[in-house]
Amino acid sequence: MTGFLTLFRKEVLRFWKVLMQTVAAPVLTTLLYLLIFSHVLEAHVQVYPGVAYTAFLIPGLVMMAILQNAFANGSSSLIQSKISGNIVFFLLPPLSYLEFFLAYLLAAMVRGLIVGLGVAMSGLLFTDLAFAHPLWILAFALLASAVFACFGIIAGIWAEKFDQLAGVQNFIIMPLTFLSGVFYSIHSLPAFWQAVSHYNPVFYMIDGFRYGFHGVSDVDPWLSLAAILPIALILAGLTLQLLRSGYKLRH
Amino acid sequence: MSRAISVRGLAKRFGGLEALRGVDLEVEQGEFFALLGPNGAGKTTLISILAGLVRASAGEASIMGHDVVRDYRDARRKLGVVPQELVFDPFFTVRETLQFQSGYFGIKRNDDWIDALLHHLNLTDKADTNMRRLSGGMKRRVLVAQALVHRPPVIVLDEPTAGVDVELRQTLWQFIRELNGQGHTILLTTHYLEEAEELCERVAMLKAGRIVALDRTANLLRADAQRRVELRLSPSRLPAALQPRLAGEKNGAFLLNLNDYGELEGMLAEIRLAGVQIESFCVRQPDLEEVFLQTMRGQP
Description:
- The complex is a heterodimer of chains A (251) and B (300).
- Chain A has ten helices and no strands.
- Chain A is mostly helical.
- Chain B is an alpha/beta fold.
- Chain B contains ten helices and 14 strands.
- Chain B has helices at 43-51, 72-77, 94-104, 111-120, 136-148, 166-181, 193-199, 217-224, 263-274, 288-298; strands spanning 5-14, 17-27, 32-36, 58-63, 66-67, 79-82, 154-158, 185-189, 202-207, 210-216, 228-234, 246-250, 253-257, 277-284.
- Classes of the chains: A mainly alpha (251), B alpha/beta (300).
- At the A-B interface, helix 1 and helix 4 of A face helix 2 and helix 3 of B.
């Protein structure tokens, strides 16, 4: 238990010591999206009746911030440790792969959720937000951050250089999040792209999360939950298996 | 009593490269043991398998009786490793680094021992300095402290004095000797053979993944190496009677084999008879470096 707690503390402290870069910067970037899109579209777009565009947009942006930062934390920490070699500091001690997994998972979730919270709080400066179903908000925030935390750990274990990690970030994470309905309802898309969106897990994360705020969504939140839960379990299982086998960590 | 380190039939293949080809090795508790060999001989691979960083392709290894794979948690608790690479985490101070390392080993409050380590390694005034700001020698000392936070009975040092100044080397060895005196087993790899000769009771020499010599240091020095006389003459002409002893020349001096001190008298007599003057004269004891070079040359 002490081993896990120490590694978790170290992982949190690692991003906490560079808060400007790991929390403040992503909050600001997300707020810029909010400022620009809400300024341009507020008067022209109404997705759900009775929900202003800015209020519609905020949950999507919060979720996007959660996902990107949960991914960034584990992946960047692991690749830095691997490249600098200080990964031996926690490969030499008797930490179990489960302790290793939980420490990295929870620290990444904490980072994602802190950035998400920062975006949500700043969003409240722009508009009033409803919190129709707080439990759904919490459930989707936790589950989605866990999925991307696992994804980040896997990418961090797999990547051998920063370039490969940037590739995952720019060619997988960015398209998945941008094409998931952060800025629009997928009902506004042509039929083909609507169908494609249903294969994007991030769509369900954002849609379910949005339901928690506004009580309306493109699909039933239970369906979203059912779509994400197996992905979370599969990714967690895969991460554990990689850590257990020592893939790319113990040669 | 279980052995400090036990290695049986250990082999490791990295793709097409055979880093270890069947190594057997036993190190008893309390020994100060040296593992020598040229670059690429497999020293670091062997250590990495002991530490669980590398998985063996065949064979097994244990620390204090705990198998490094099946019983990895106990094996790692008993082992402290000072890695060869100068690694550090730039996010943290020296004290934080040591507190984290203690925590990874399951030790909650370790500040007294951390203070003692800092003191022994002359790091007390750097305790709250960020790792980034330390010199190479200081980072090396922190690595030593990190390996010792959990007071492991077996300590492995992988070239701990590479690029380290004389003063630190002395401090470090004094401390390691103390630990050895308290019963800790020390396994050392080094390129400085005089260090191994001075410190270690037993030596294993590794070449191309195999152990090519394994004995007490004293026996190795006695068995393999030749005692020699280094002789400078004026004029520089070696009497014919001494030619059979000639082993080589070095900077204008003759190197003559000497099997027994009793032979010295006869040699001096020959020189006197030949009418040449002795400019300088010294008897050179065999050192580990010579044994090492001979052993390495003698092996395929």
